[in-house]
Amino acid sequence: MAREGMEQTMQDERRAFLGGIASLAGIGAGVAAPVRALAKAAMGGGSNAMIVSTWDFGAPANDAAFARGRSGGSLIDMVEAGVMVPEADPNNHSVGYGGYPDRDGHVTLDAVIMDDAGGVGAVAALEDTVHAISVARAVMEHTPHTFLVGEGATRFARDRGFPRVNLLTPEAEKAWRDWLKTQNYKPVANSETGTYGAGRPGTPGGALDHDTIGMLARDASGRMAGACTTSGMAFKMRGRVGDSPQVGSGLYVERGVGGATSTGLGEEVTRTVGTARVVASMRHGLSPQAACEEAAKHIASLRGDAIKGVQVGFLAMDTAGRVGAFCLLPGFTYAVTDATGRTRVEKAPSLFRA
User: Fold this and answer.
1) What's the rounded Cα separation, in Å, for the pair 354 and 351?
2) Which is it for the CA torsion 177, 127, 243, 205, positive or negative?
């Protein structure tokens, strides 16, 4: 009987081992496979979040991401399609085409895309290419690297067939020339939620500002992916790169835990590797809301008076679709889309008053 029991144990262990190999083989498949679970979740009427993104202009981005998922796209397809919306919008001066240039008049773009199986692609200081997020995806899927920058990133985009496009619109050029008259550089908090599309300071990512769109998406099984893209600080020093394209700062996604993205003044996020910190807190039991609060409070404690008047915000979602958001100053908004495709815009609570 003892021998029979030992043989049965060995057979059970072998099945478990083979099952583990099968699971490992499927790790990368979930985020690349069509999101059929999205439709299944919608039929169930689930109210938990499936897609979240930063700022008011995240709402149409979420709608595009949801539509891509419903048509059979993968999670990576979804987040790419979603953030491509603001990238192509000339009225959005913090992302993609129409973004405000650096102080030398060059529009440069940064982006990162990431799945929960360790797939990562990023670009920084990319020029003459509208969809930085798609170039970042090409880095992930067609190179052995995770990050290309500057001239190399731009040359890679041309080699992959991305068209050359002048990103400096007449409106953005005028804003830059007006800035040159004073060269007064001071980021302005929350211009993203001002008079979007009005063509004056106060537009999303408006003159003298910074910003980005970050997006997270999940399916009903809890698999996740994320994307983050920006034209960075308006009138920044040439070569400046903020948090957005840096894994663990602008974006972080971890299988079985969740993901986080950041917004605001990137230098303050990179000092603390903010989104990696948020996800680590979630891994150790904090809710997405509590994790975002902890990360923002840590920045405030670390930096003190140096962050007076500075905005930083965090947005997180776990694998069950629970969402958290928190910021330093009032004004940070985010878009949430549930499994039925309904999108709402929420205001994040803040640590400080205005």
Assistant:
1) 10
2) positive
Cβ-based neighbours of 77, under 8 Å, separated by 6 or more: 68, 69
Query: 171-208 pLDDT, tens per residue?
Result: 999 999 999 988 876 665 654 444 344 443 443 333 33
How does strand 147-149 pair with strand 120-126? Answer: parallel
Tell me if 113 sits within 8 A of 76, measured CB to CB: yes
Contact 129, 135 (CB under 8 A): yes
Q: Mind giving me the DSSP string for 10-56?
A: HHHHHHHHHHHHHHHHTTTHHHHS--HHHHHHHHTT--SEEEEEEST
How does pLDDT run across 96-108, given as a tens digit for each residue?
888 899 999 999 9
Angle between helix 150-159 and helix 132-142 axes, rounded to 10 deg: 80
Other C-beta atoms closer than 10 Å to the C-beta of 20 total 10
Q: Report pLDDT digits (tens) over 156-166.
A: 999 999 999 99
The mean pLDDT value for 217-225 works out to 97
Nearest to 354 by CA among 294, 308, 301: 308
pLDDT, tens digit, for every residue of 244-270? 999 999 999 999 999 999 999 999 999
Residue that the structure tokens 């920058």 belong to: 149
Q: What is the CA radius of gyration of the chain?
A: 21
| Residue 212 is among the residues annotated as catalytic for this protein | yes
**C-beta of residue 187 within 8 angstroms of C-beta of residue 233:** yes
One of 212, 270, 272, 333 is an active-site residue; which one?
212
Which domains, and CATH codes, for the chain?
Answer: 33-347 (3.60.20.30)
Contacts with 295 (C-beta within 8 Å, 6 or more apart), sequence order:
272, 274, 275, 277, 278, 281, 314, 326
Token pair of 134, please?
Answer: 């798609």
Mean pLDDT of the region 217-244: 95
Q: Say what the pTM is.
A: 0.84
Structure tokens at 220: 């009903």
Amino acid (1-letter code) at residue 35: V
Task: Give the per-residue pLDDT at 189.
Answer: 60
Burial (Cβ within 10 Å: 0-12, 13-18, ≥19) of residue 103: middle
